[in-house]
Specification:
single chain, alpha+beta, Ribosomal Protein S5, domain 2, Alpha-Beta Plaits, 7-stranded mixed β-sheet, 4-stranded antiparallel β-sheet, 11 strands
């Protein structure tokens, strides 16, 4: 069994996100559709003599217990009773605090990587429980499927079998948005907003793009609207902010149209632009 693993942590987008309520514990309940995409952080995990050491060469994330990937390793050792001994290196490609789930994906990669390194000492249910404690997106990243409906806080998952191939152009305006801030500033209403989605609707997903958090973030950062307008003018079938933002995606069903939009945006703007496809 290897003492060294290189893992790839994908980003995700929310193809829709409805906030359906708020529990007594302060957590919001969601109805969302997760999609993994081909933008990856690289995670290198090595067995070490003792302790947990985390590094990020770019210096874009904390390298201590404030990092969710570090917390994942700590939980793993506590649950399994194993003595801590791992070096974790995170090479970031996914923008930080951008609505793309990069931290959650890194944490899930660390959990799955430690499972492999130690011969699967943690029961699957325990691993999922760790994931839920770390963050609402982590359980989705722990699973092998690439698209799923999320309910509860996002941890009750219904996988979508045979999802359609999709292309996306992502625009990140290179400033962070706090998920906590977005939810704290969301006004929940009692009016009934009918939103019905079932797995067979995924073939026409462009008709279901909606994000309750977009209005919150865009009220503070109007550039969200500008980025959407660019994507639609360049041929996207739909455009939406993902998660709590500020990243916006344009959805394309044809690779060539997505590529052309990507090239135009790279030349016409100073934003970080990514061409990705669904996993």
């Amino acid at each position: 069994m290897s003492d060294y693993h290189i893992l790839y942590a994908p980003a995700k987008i929310n193809l829709f996100l409805k906030v359906t309520g708020k529990g007594a514990d302060g957590y919001h309940s969601l109805f969302t559709l997760f999609q993994k995409v081909t933008l990856f952080d690289h995670i290198i995990i090595r067995k070490a003599e003792k302790g947990i050491k985390l590094s990020c060469p770019q210096g874009t994330v904390p390298e201590d217990e404030r990092n969710i990937a570090y917390q994942a390793a700590s939980f793993f050792y506590k649950v399994t009773g194993l003595s801590p001994g791992v070096d974790i290196e995170i090479r970031k490609n996914i923008p930080v605090a951008a609505g793309l789930g990069g931290g959650s994906s890194d944490a899930s990669c660390v959990l799955n990587g430690l499972q492999d390194l130690y011969g699967n000492p943690c029961a699957r249910d325990n691993l999922s429980s760790i994931g839920s404690k770390l963050g609402a997106d982590v359980p989705f990243f722990l699973e092998p499927y690439t698209m799923a409906i999320g309910r509860g806080i996002g941890d009750r998952l219904e996988p979508i079998s045979s999802p359609p191939p999709l292309w996306f152009v992502l625009i990140s305006p290179c400033f962070p948005v706090s998920t906590k801030w977005a939810y704290e500033n969301l006004t929940l209403t009692t009016r009934k907003n009918l939103f019905i989605f079932s797995p067979e609707h995924v073939i026409n997903i462009e008709q279901f793009l909606h994000n309750d958090l977009e209005e919150v973030t865009a009220s503070q950062y109007p550039v969200i609207h500008t980025m959407k307008e660019y994507l639609l003018s360049y041929g996207a079938e739909g455009a939406l902010m993902t998660g709590s933002g500020p990243t916006v995606f344009g959805l394309f069903k044809e690779k060539e149209k997505a590529r052309l939009a990507y090239e135009r945006l790279r030349s016409d703007s100073d934003w970080a632009v990514y061409l990705v496809r669904s996993l």
